[in-house]
Design goal:
The protein is α/β, with parallel strands linked by helices and 351 residues long. It is built from eleven helices and eleven strands. Strands 1, 2, 3, 4, 5, 6, 7, 8, 9, 10 and 11 form an eleven-stranded mixed beta sheet that branches.
């Protein structure tokens, strides 16, 4: 989906080096000035490959732009005239990036020393590798995000279906070719949607345990109800656009079941109503369009679908039923716990 920001008359303050950077770090932000400054302190203090740092501000009103310009004059600042969400801001940053690789992080996440170099080395070796999913750690929850796919975490790079958007390295030319994130999604499920298109293009995604990122998961300007609405609506939009028939029906059913369970257990009326609203919008409104729905002819696409089945606790072949039920129950429970852990922070804040 082409970025709607391509024609925006945004203000950009650019300081470019003499050489094309190897990587461009893109950070989207909105009204989290101090958190962003802390992140930039980590990012700008490392001497990794030749890089540029791009901050895309979603029309903040808390002095973010002025603070960054004063403290980090080497950072490229892109000011947007409205809050375009994570997808719009990330696309805008990618559009002006000069690096061969894009490093996507949040304003409350940052790479540890050596993380970017290790990811770039992996990409340099394999032209069919479209992105490297970082090994993202959340200190407040003492949790590694990729335990959703591996437990314990592998010691060597392994294939994964999608990445966590707060710590990933993507080929810039591929991101552009695939039209970046779908801006209809605003927040949540944009990584899965982009990853699906990446797999369809014949590329792969690999998790690299050495590419370590820290995600502080700051609750400022985050709403539990908004989170639940977008997580439900966007998930249904993506599934309905990517799959057809029985495959779409079972993925949608399990997503609704998991999110509904989390909403009920939150004991918050706003969260439950947001889930129901997301369910309504996700079913009744047009799905996120894909270049072509999953049909099974693309081997890379089938790999993505198998990972989706594991993530949701489903299997495609009914063998050894009792063992499968136990295994699927554990997978679904793990996914539900991860969703529940995201419902943190003040409910009356607004994205």
């Amino acid at each position: 989906m082409t970025s709607s920001l391509s024609g925006v008359d945004a203000e950009s303050e650019i300081q470019s080096g003499a050489h094309r950077p190897k990587v461009s770090i893109v950070i989207a932000t909105w009204n989290r000035r101090q958190r962003l400054l802390d992140t930039l302190h980590h990012v700008c203090s490392e001497a990794e490959p030749i890089r540029e740092v791009i901050v895309v501000d979603n029309a903040s009103t808390d002095g973010t732009i002025e603070a960054v310009a004063a403290a980090f004059p080497q950072v490229r600042l892109l000011r947007l005239p409205w809050n375009s969400g994570h997808t719009g801001a990330a696309n805008a940053g990618a559009a002006v990036a000069e690096g061969e690789y894009l490093v996507m992080i949040d304003d409350d996440s940052f790479p540890e020393e050596g993380a970017i170099s290790s990811a770039c080395e992996l990409l340099d070796k394999d032209p069919l590798l479209g992105a490297v999913a970082g090994n993202v750690y959340t200190p407040s929850e003492r949790r590694w995000d990729m335990t959703r796919f591996f437990d314990p975490l592998p010691k060597e790079p392994r294939e994964v279906p999608w990445f966590v958007g707060c710590g990933v390295v993507i080929r810039k030319d591929l991101f552009t070719k695939l039209h970046g994130y779908n801006e209809r999604l605003v927040f949540y499920w944009e990584e899965e949607d982009f990853s699906f298109r990446l797999w369809q293009s014949g590329h792969r995604i690999a998790f690299h345990p050495a590419a370590r990122f820290v995600h502080l998961r700051s609750p400022e300007n985050r709403s539990n109800a908004r989170f639940m609405f977008l997580l439900t609506r966007n998930g249904l939009w993506f599934i309905r656009g990517a799959y057809r028939g029985w495959q779409a029906a079972r993925f949608c059913f399990v997503l609704a079941l998991l999110n509904g369970s989390v909403a009920v257990r939150s004991h918050k009326t706003k969260v439950l109503l947001a889930f129901l609203d997301g369910l309504r919008h996700g079913v009744l409104e047009p799905a996120v369009s894909q270049s072509s729905p999953a049909g099974g002819s693309n081997s890379h696409e089938r790999i993505f679908t198998r990972h989706m089945e594991r993530f949701f606790g489903l299997t495609s072949v009914p063998r050894k039923i009792s063992a499968r039920v136990r295994r699927n129950s554990r997978a679904a429970t793990k996914t539900e716990k991860q969703l529940t852990s995201c419902l943190a922070g003040e409910e009356d804040t607004v994205i």
